[in-house]
Amino acid sequence: DGVCVPLAECKNYHVNELISIRLQDSDCEHYLNVCCDPENVENPDKGKDDQNNPENEDNGSKENGEVDVVASPKPDDDIQPTPDPDTVVVVSPEPDDANQVKHGDEDDAGVTPKSDHEDRPRFEAEFGECGIRNKDGVIFSVTDAQHQEAQFGEFPWMVAVLQYDADTSDHQYSCGGSLIAPNAVLTAAHCVLDKDADSMIVRAGEWDTMTTNEVLPHQERKVSKVITHEHFNQKAMANDVAVLLLEEPFTAAENVQLACLPPQGTVFENNDCFAAGWGKANFHTQSYQAILKKLELPMVSKAECQAALQGTRLGPRFRLHPSFVCAGGQQGVDTCTGDGGSPLVCPVAGRDDKYYQAGIVAWGIECGQEGVPGVYVKTSLYTDWINEKLAQAY
């Protein structure tokens, strides 16, 4: 009889397999495990013993790809005084409300060491052309995404920013970000404001936050410095951009690659842009996404966006700051709490596989309301600023 092992440990299991993320469709208890002939198991010490090891269980992963975590935006997380400011959502959770994620062995500082599998020859890669989206996934493809799950490795520049919580001796999900250099991450200033660099780590190559069974491991690096924009306005959320410098660069892998910054001043008018993140599905749910979700969103002009936002409780006097762009506006399709700092990417003209980072998830009015777009930092306004900060640092 076969044994259930992680996909990457079965020698005769073909790459580019079709994988179901619905547990009832799998022969094994975990959707990323496969039934393998014992003779073909790369690590023979695993297998049958590991199948029934409670430490390898999903620990809270739900069949619908969500994990229960209570996280409510604080009423003072507004962008400017409004008649009802608690309707304005800054799309990052507070540390106490954050999503607890999987962990391996941790050192005394609470930082997970690099995985022993990071340098597997089978998965060696280089930092290639930036902004390349793997629309069919890496190594396998998800066949039955029902909750807007992204493919594994589809957005290889996507990172999670985690903050160490001394009270729980654990790391908590704080916000999203994008890898713009092997040792630098782009995120939103509101995500990292007043946070110490030594309390944060960045995780790249992540996909399902509730399992360590992915076919390629995630990697983690400590943050050495936080650079927020000098003119970030916490009240109006203007210039909501930050760069995190890392103590060590990430190792290139198929699921760890770089995002592309757009040329300074680029204007995006696409209807086929994507945002990704682990945030809530909507404003009223108490659940974060376990598996990285993706949303296809149209860009919305400044005039149309401002008019839509004036129709909300922001009121007719609201003016959209020039540092923002807007996208979305379709019922139920929106970034939400927990997605802050995550990238919005749009295709490069003439390419169907390469994307520029057009925005950074910033804020919105609740989430997913019909006719109300989400608001994003206009990345192309800051390309020169970002490059200047990187040049000064390195």
TrEMBL record:
CDD domains: Tryp_SPc
InterPro entries the UniProt entry points to: Peptidase_S1_PA (IPR009003), Peptidase_S1_PA_chymotrypsin (IPR043504), Peptidase_S1A (IPR001314), Trypsin_dom (IPR001254), TRYPSIN_HIS (IPR018114)
Segments for region (Disordered): 42-120
Domain called Peptidase S1: residue spans: 142-391
Cellular compartment(s): Secreted
GO cellular component, one term: extracellular region
Keywords: Disulfide bond, Hydrolase, Protease, Secreted
PANTHER family: LP15124P-RELATED (PTHR24258:SF129), SERINE PROTEASE-RELATED (PTHR24258)
Name of the molecule in the record: Phenoloxidase-activating factor 2
Source organism: Psorophora albipes
